Amino acid sequence: MRFRHAVTIVAVLALASACTSSPESAPSTSTPAPTTSSVSTTSSSPSPTPTPTTSSSSTTSTSSSSPKPTPKPTPKPKPKPKPKPKPKPVNPLTGLAVSKNPVIAVKMDNTRAGMPQFGIADADVVYVEQVEGGLTRLITVFHTRLPAEVGAVRSMRSTDVQLLPSYGRPILVASGGAGAQMQRLYKSVLVDATQQSGGPGFWRSSFGDGTHNLHVNLRTVANAYPGKGKAQPMGFSFSTHDKRLVNARRTSLIDVTMLAGRIKFTYSGGKYRPYYFDTPYVDHDGRPVFTQNVLVQHVRDEPDGTVDSLGSASYLSHTVGKGKFTLYRDGRVINGTWLRPSVTSPTKYLDLKGKPVPFKPGKTWVLLAPQTSVINHG
To answer: How far apart are CA 64 and CA 262, in angstroms?
Structure first.
């Protein structure tokens, strides 16, 4: 009995061992849930590697403990400064509206025999210069308006040839000149429109005697020289206001004696009225003559080698170099220094600190006052 039971147990264990080790004995309708060890040893095809839990946890922890930095806002580009508007061009002779007319300088008589002058009220700039015998003569410069009648026209001097190239290449109108004076003109940059050289537009007026009746039509002159006499800066700068005027000395009377010539100016209502001795300048058509600026430019004069029929020496007033000046505008007085390095250079007018002195927009009278002049204020 014990032997039979032992045999039976062995047989049962052998059968159980055979059933467990053979895959073919597993039922075909059900698949047991694999464990991790059975999948790795019995699966015929590789399975995907599971994501380790620790790695995922570590990534999450790192992400949450190190936040991304907040990006700095991009600065807006600064707006480019607007370019300053270019100043509008102005007439270099007056500081007012630009003119397309040429610049024409006319030598004009300045004696009682030649007064009242024709067209003088239209001149933009008037120069008073010393000539022979203690007399004075005018250089009237026209640009804004060109009158159809200007006179009495007289002869040129060496001062004109040195002074006028500061305007560039203006047209010079005169009756003519002595031989040496005309030679100076021929060698200069000026456009020769003198009657002596055959200039156009002249006639003898019924007003005045044979010495004081030569007149000229400046419109005819301009048409005869197209493209000539173009305006360019000649040294004047302009400003309606000037802070230097606040503390500048006041004056309402200017009295300048140049040997036998005397010019006075009275100030009223923002402008000056010129007088020849005690006679006010009046255009022949009845218009009074006014100017916004009076410039006394101190110069040195000397005989230029020419003498008139009476033996009186002609004088050259030097406008190249430097010297003192006094500008009268708005009833005030400003002193300074003028500077002109060469004949073809414009003239600079600087205050005592070396800064440009602006003229008041409008007309200007310039007295080229030699060293013998006497100047009084009132």
So the answer is: 101
